[in-house]
Amino acid sequence: MSRKRDPGPIGWTWRWLLFVVAALILNLPVVFTVFTSFKTNADINASPPVWLFAPTLQHYAEVLTTPTLNFPRYLMNSFVLAAAGTAIALVLAVPAAYAIVRMKFGGGTIVPIVLMLRTLPLVIFAIPFYFMFQWLGLLDTRLGLSIIAAIINLPFALLFAIAMVRDLPYEIEEAARVDGAGIGMLLWRIVIPLGRPMLISIAILSFIYAWNEFLFGLILTTRSATPVTVGATLFATSFGIRWGPTSAAMVLSLLPPMLVGLVCFRYLTRALTAGAIKG
Amino acid sequence: MHRRREAWWLIAPLAIFMVVWLGFPFLSNLYYSLSDVTFETLSSPTLTGFGNFADAAGSAAFWQSLWFSLRFAVIATTAQIIIALTLAIALRPLLERYRFLLAVLILPLMISPALMGIMYKLMLNEFVGVVPQYLALFGLYPNLLGPDWVVTVVIAIEVLQWTPFALLLLLTALQAIPEELLDAAYVDGAKPRDQVRRIVLPLMGPAIAITAFIRFIDSFRVFDHIYVLTGGGPGTLTTSSSIFIYRAFFQQGRLGFAIASSLILMAFSLLLLWATMRYVLKGART
Q1: Are the CB atoms for B54 and B33 separated by under 8 Å?
Q2: Alpha carbons B167 and A94: distance in angstroms, whole number
């Protein structure tokens, strides 16, 4: 039936054209940055811009090996805080979601608070967190930023986990209960294995969000726990903006979340759309 | 009874985590907002009552930044929805046949907005950036980060980065419309334009409302790309509320004032949230 609505050759042609134009415009910043990162300084300054040139790795080498730049450390910081923030958020959200859905407990209080957290401007939390971190000695530590990442990820982690538990077949849990399985066993042996696709989706989205966070990284770190998003901006200024190394630093900073997102594209789109429908 | 205790155990870690990490900021905000305090007198602030709130509420710059954020969010959200809806309807056959093409289009939403800001700084740079150099070929020399263009530019960047998000959501909603409906309309001789207006748009109403809502709250709290690109300037032309409060606190050291401003912003956001939930999303929740 629906085959009748095939657009025909002309329809396909202008759709392809539209796609190419849209894809180019949306991705131009990334494309141009990648090109710039492989250019020699002379090619960077060429006018009009050159698109064909002999690529060089000098900027990458400089960014990764100059000790004063500290760039490998920034990369490591981002990995640690994104991974730890994701883990904390999942560990807190999944059991709570189970209690909220299956035991009808606490949802009425926690869900609205968590939703509010998602909608308020983050700068409202930034100032008190600065005080709190100062008193607790968490300023400029990876632990501190991991906690922040967890807080940022909790809203959607909890909402998705609630959706996940709701979709699980209750009969299996009941059967396990009758067989005498404790609550820990139930979560570990049934909820987590059955909910795995959704858990992966939550983890991927949470990793990307945490990695890309900027405001708290800017406020709560100075040197040793700085994430790459902030590190790359420091770069832009400390160099008096030398675009070669800055571009190389940016490419290195945006590669990990992009690779994760592309490799797990299916999970990512599921997470993003599920979030909108449920949230 | 046994079940109830189990539920407590399951929810306790999250509850404690939230009480600690949200309860403290709340109390500290309340206390400092009523105090005269600088970075030097953090541990011995003097209580001054509502002076900070009066300062913030009487600050033209504060309301200006709030107005900027609102305008920014409304314009950016509207543009994103219109472009995304057009792309979703036009490209649907293509994106359904070749699923991986969608990945190319949603690439920008995996990128940190702060990095996006620096990338545009590179693109717009007058010596090495593509945009000014190609415009120059046409004899155009606009100062894109100058007073005339800068607001348009920061809005455009927001739109270009987040239209893919709206596209993804709206495409999913579009695909949920039963094929039979469109086929029936086709058989009845409805033109494509009428199909869109009479069938697609009404059925997608809820999805459009939710997408717009999500994009609006995110655009309203904008900080990252503007901060790295313009720092809120030139002057205060692109100072959003988030940037205003950040500057008052970290660059000018007006702690009490910054906190009072952030609490007014919070009250305003909650009001906005409540109104949206009540009037816009009411019909959307099915």
Answers
A1: no
A2: 29
Judging contacts by C-beta atoms under 8 Å, the chain A residues touching residue B109 are: 272
Instruction: Write out residues 182-201 of A within 8 Å (CB-CB) of B.
Output: 183
Predicted model pTM: 0.91
Q: How far is B18 from B95, CA to CA, in rounded Å?
A: 41
Q: Does residue A59 contact residue A37 with C-beta atoms inside 8 Å?
A: yes
Domain tally for chain A? 2
Domain residues for A257? 63-278
Nearest-Cα residue of chain B relative to residue A158:
B14
Alpha carbon of B269: minimum distance to chain A alpha carbons (Å): 6
Q: Which residues of B touch A25 (CB under 8 A)?
A: 160
Q: Which of B158, B168, B180, B163 is nearest to B207 (CA)?
A: B168
* Same domain, yes or no: A69 and A28: no
Q: Which of residues 250-269 of B touch A (CB under 8 A)?
A: 250, 255, 258-259, 262-263, 265-266, 269
A14 and A142 assigned to the same domain: no
What is the per-residue pLDDT across B245-268, written as a single tens digit (0 to 9) for each? Answer: 999 998 888 888 899 999 999 999
Please say whether the beta carbons of B220 and B70 come within 8 A.
Answer: yes
Whether residue A17 sits in one domain with residue A107 = no
A83 close contact with B: CB closer than 8 A: no
State the CB neighbour count (10 A cutoff) for residue B54.
Answer: 11
The verdict on a CB contact (< 8 Å) between B221 and A121 is yes
Tens digits of pLDDT across chain A (279 residues): 444 567 788 889 999 999 999 999 999 999 999 999 999 988 888 877 888 888 999 999 998 998 888 899 999 999 999 999 999 999 999 999 999 988 888 878 888 888 888 888 999 888 899 988 988 999 999 999 999 999 999 988 998 899 889 888 888 888 888 887 788 888 888 888 888 988 999 999 999 999 999 999 999 998 889 999 999 888 776 556 788 999 999 999 999 999 999 988 888 888 777 655 544
Judge whether B10 and A183 are in contact, CB under 8 Å: yes
Closest residue of chain A to B220, computed from CA coordinates: A121
- A121 and A32 housed in the same domain: no
Same domain, A67 and A31: no
**Which ipTM did the prediction report?**
0.90
**Pair A133, A254 in one domain:** yes
Q: Does A27 touch chain B (CB under 8 A)?
A: yes
Domain identity same for A128 and A222: yes
Domains of chain B: 59-280 (1.10.3720.10)
Q: Are both A158 and A199 inside the same structural domain? A: yes
The CATH number of whichever domain residue A102 belongs to comes to 1.10.3720.10
CB atoms within 10 A of CB A230: 27
